[in-house]
């Protein structure tokens, strides 16, 4: 081998070593941290959105102090108040009248007075009742006025009040005392002395107005798991109407298909060996049905969503701005999330979009299950929206917002990080086309969506509430149901009411119905409702008159009155229903927004049911009514405990008034029937268990507004598609070659329990 060959080989070896070193150094070098670019935001009117802002903790404290000093009665902290005491049950924002707000927002009028709505339970007086006061002005209250009769047409009877945590504690104590009277039965059936059994309430509480008698279902309780899947077959009926806790009584006992007058009777039958007992082993944490503990160690990380140049939305106080959208957000402790003054390109589309109620109605051959109709607003949809887990409930880099409430205590509480806001890449084009004829090009736009989310844990179920805003000017509202199913003890013909999901566990069938209020203002307040659908007409072909054609044509109808605009649940409905403005777009069509409902609702309660009127909003998948200040909500927290004489009956809102060129509200029901099955253990998955609706522009614009999006992509066969200037997708390898800044994981959601 000559010297020249040696030198060449040596040079090649050095070059190879140098290349390998470069590769290794590149791999070991951490990517740079993503640099957030400042948002270019249009100036908004300073603080206007605060007219809808939830009360601050400081304002709540001021209201409590004012009431304590100005009502002339002794007020006991609700966290320890007995039924025979007076207490402040809750304090929330009193939303100003719409006319006042619009004068302020649009007409340069004065800012409406900031006021609170306080709910008080008066148990220590000759005529116990529930009273609602408007208190203001905030932050320094100087007046209060009783609005109970104005809102409800009379006083609210005391028995309609929601059950407080203190009342539940006293009931549980009564149940535990009664269980001590059946020690040998409990040891044999459940390997328990009764103190370690979980107690679950049902509702409503009786069969007629004035009743306050509740079935409670008992379960094996294993720490760190969902007890809802481990019923022991024992249920008890407690009467707790009397103002004096010492007079409450256990009225009935149910076990494994039989009813008994008391726990003593149950024990006597057991000792006499006339009772069939199912002997249950106390479940262990590693084998219990409801365990959500991981069964395998963590694997490789999945995809991570992040913004290479920072969030493209802005949150200021209670207002979000995102591209052409602006949204004001808030939370009611009872009814949950609510949005106001939703605008696109500066034009108000929706004045109010708010959750109203969530109904869960069960079937079973056990008394607790068969009588359960939970109205979750009375428990507190907003109050029980706890802290969200970053990276799972919402993207890790989402913006998290605290929510404050005052309920059953004189001290405000905070659910920190309980609402999240993020931009979501849906991984599907919003629109696209690949042209393979005449000319060759591609055009498209990613479906990026702004999401506002909160999640409520209502006993066993977790409801994920989503509000989404698309680049096309469309809004999407969706609820996903997850969490634990509620179950009954399997006995007799139990599978007529669900499926067996465990050795002695019946997953009981139930329906979920959810109600929303949508106050649309499409190009102004004065709107009408237009229905459009297709029909077929049979015609002779005009070019020969020898053949027939079934030609579809568009059938349009303006709905003139409320009765026409009330569409029964699960009945056929026009496929296109739009809130329309008298003002046309460029092409002569009324500027409109279409309501598109996605729902698989179960059957509504029969109309002749004694409690149907309390949930009469569920009769309709959609009802459009004249907007009235005296009809702010479709239900009431008092309906749960007296559904037989409902405080608010939505059916009364529909009285055939004209709805042409009026300020209108759409009331939308969505839901699904759930027949639990093996795959609902340990948890119900959200897949397939989501329903909702869209609000979509329909001739509101002159063209799809997303064409103005800077995210649009277009390139042709004549361009260099690798050139960043011609194709924004070519910019990604460099623009997104950075690591997101992830703050340390934090979760404090257990602190407020």
UniProtKB/TrEMBL annotation:
InterPro entries this protein is in? Cu_Am_ox_TPQ-bd, Cu_amine_oxidase, Cu_amine_oxidase_C, Cu_amine_oxidase_C_sf, Cu_amine_oxidase_N-reg, Cu_amine_oxidase_N2, Cu_amine_oxidase_N3
Domain Copper amine oxidase N3-terminal positions: 161-258
Q: What does the entry's cofactor note say about binding and number?
A: Contains 1 topaquinone per subunit.
Gene Ontology BP terms: amine metabolic process
Q: Which GO terms describe its cellular component?
A: plasma membrane
Which residues, if any, are the signal sequence? 1-19
Q: How would you classify this enzyme at the top EC level?
A: oxidoreductase
Which residues are reported to carry the modification 2',4',5'-topaquinone? Answer: 461
Q: Which Pfam families does the UniProt entry name for this protein?
A: Cu_amine_oxid, Cu_amine_oxidN2, Cu_amine_oxidN3
Q: What is its cofactor?
A: Cu cation
Q: What is its EC number?
A: 1.4.3.-
What positions does the domain Copper amine oxidase catalytic occupy? Answer: 305-706
Where does the Copper amine oxidase N2-terminal domain start and stop, copy by copy? 74-143
Keywords carried by this UniProt record: Copper, Metal-binding, Oxidoreductase, Signal, TPQ
Q: How is it modified after translation?
A: Topaquinone (TPQ) is generated by copper-dependent autoxidation of a specific tyrosyl residue.
Record: active site: 376, 461
Is Oxidoreductase one of the keywords UniProt gives this record?
A: yes
Q: Which GO terms describe its molecular function?
A: copper ion binding; primary methylamine oxidase activity; quinone binding
Similarity field: Belongs to the copper/topaquinone oxidase family.
Q: What is this protein called?
A: Amine oxidase
Q: Native species of this protein?
A: Tachuris rubrigastra
């Amino acid at each position: 081998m000559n010297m020249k060959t040696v030198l060449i080989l040596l040079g090649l070896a050095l070059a190879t070593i140098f290349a390998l070193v470069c590769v290794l150094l590149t791999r070991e070098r951490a990517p740079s941290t993503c640099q957030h670019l400042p948002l270019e935001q249009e100036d908004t009117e300073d603080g206007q959105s605060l007219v809808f802002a939830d009360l601050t903790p400081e304002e709540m404290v001021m209201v409590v102090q004012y009431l304590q000093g100005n009502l002339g009665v002794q007020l006991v902290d609700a966290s320890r108040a007995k039924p025979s005491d007076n207490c402040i049950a809750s304090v929330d924002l009193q939303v100003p009248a719409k006319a006042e707000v619009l004068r302020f927002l649009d007409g340069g009028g004065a800012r409406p007075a900031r006021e609170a709505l306080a709910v008080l339970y008066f148990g220590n007086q000759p005529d116990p009742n529930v009273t609602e006061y408007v208190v203001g002005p905030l932050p320094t209250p100087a007046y209060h006025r009783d609005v109970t009769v104005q809102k409800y047409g009379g006083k609210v009877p005391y028995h309609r009040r929601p059950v407080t945590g203190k009342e539940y504690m006293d009931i549980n104590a009564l149940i535990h005392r009664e269980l001590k009277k059946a020690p040998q039965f409990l040891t044999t059936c459940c390997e328990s002395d009764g103190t370690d059994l979980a107690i679950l309430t049902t509702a409503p509480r009786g069969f007629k107005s004035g009743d306050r008698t509740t079935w409670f279902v008992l379960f094996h309780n294993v720490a760190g798991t969902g007890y809802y899947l481990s019923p022991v077959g024992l249920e008890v009926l407690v009467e707790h109407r009397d103002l004096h806790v010492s007079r409450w009584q256990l009225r009935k006992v149910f076990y494994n298909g039989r009813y008994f007058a008391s726990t003593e009777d149950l024990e006597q039958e057991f000792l006499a060996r006339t009772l069939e007992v199912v002997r249950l082993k106390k479940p262990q944490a590693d084998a219990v049905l409801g365990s959500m503990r991981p069964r395998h160690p963590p694997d490789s990380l999945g995809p991570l969503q992040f913004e290479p140049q920072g969030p493209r939305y802005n949150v200021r106080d209670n207002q979000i701005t995102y591209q052409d959208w602006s949204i004001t957000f808030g939370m009611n402790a009872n009814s949950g999330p609510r949005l106001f003054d939703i605008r696109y390109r500066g034009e108000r589309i929706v004045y109010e979009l708010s959750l109203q109620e969530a109904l869960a109605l069960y079937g079973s051959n056990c008394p607790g299950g068969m009588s359960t109709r939970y109205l979750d607003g009375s428990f507190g949809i907003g109050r029980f929206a706890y802290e969200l887990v970053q990276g799972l409930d919402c993207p890790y880099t989402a913006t998290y917002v605290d929510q404050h409430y005052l309920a059953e205590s004189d001290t405000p509480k905070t659910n920190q990080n309980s609402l999240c806001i993020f931009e979501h890449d849906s991984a599907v084009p919003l629109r696209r086309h690949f042209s393979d004829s005449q000319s060759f090009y591609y055009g498209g736009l990613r479906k990026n969506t702004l999401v506002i989310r909160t999640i409520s844990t209502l006993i066993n179920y977790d409801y994920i509430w989503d509000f989404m805003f698309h680049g096309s000017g469309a809004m999407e509202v969706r609820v996903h149901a997850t969490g634990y199913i509620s179950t009954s003890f399997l006995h007799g013909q139990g599978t007529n009411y669900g499926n067996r999901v465990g050795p002695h566990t019946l997953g009981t069938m139930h329906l979920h119905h959810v109600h929303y209020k949508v106050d649309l203002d499409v190009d102004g307040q004065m709107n009408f409702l237009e229905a459009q659908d297709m029909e077929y007409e049979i015609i002779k072909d005009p070019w020969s008159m020898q053949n027939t054609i079934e030609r579809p044509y568009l059938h349009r109808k303006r709905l003139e009155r409320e009765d026409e605009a009330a569409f029964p649940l699960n009945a056929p409905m026009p496929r296109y229903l739009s809130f329309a403005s008298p003002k046309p777009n460029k092409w002569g069509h009324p500027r409109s927004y279409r309501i598109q409902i996605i729902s698989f609702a179960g059957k509504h309660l029969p109309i002749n049911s004694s409690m149907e009127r309390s949930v009469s909003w569920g009769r309709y998948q959609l009802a459009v009514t004249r907007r009235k200040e005296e009809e702010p909500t479709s239900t009431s927290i008092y309906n749960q405990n007296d559904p037989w004489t409902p405080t608010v009956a939505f059916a009364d809102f529909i009285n055939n008034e004209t709805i042409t060129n009026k300020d209108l509200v759409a009331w939308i029901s969505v839901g699904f029937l759930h027949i639990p099955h093996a795959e609902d253990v340990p948890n119900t998955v959200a897949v397939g268990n989501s329903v909702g609706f869209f609000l979509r522009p329909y001739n509101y614009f002159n063209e799809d507004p997303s064409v103005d999006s800077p995210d649009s992509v277009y390139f042709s066969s004549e361009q260099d598609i690798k050139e960043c200037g011609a194709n924004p997708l070519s910019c990604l390898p460099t623009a997104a070659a950075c690591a997101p800044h992830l703050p340390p994981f934090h979760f404090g959601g257990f602190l407020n329990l």
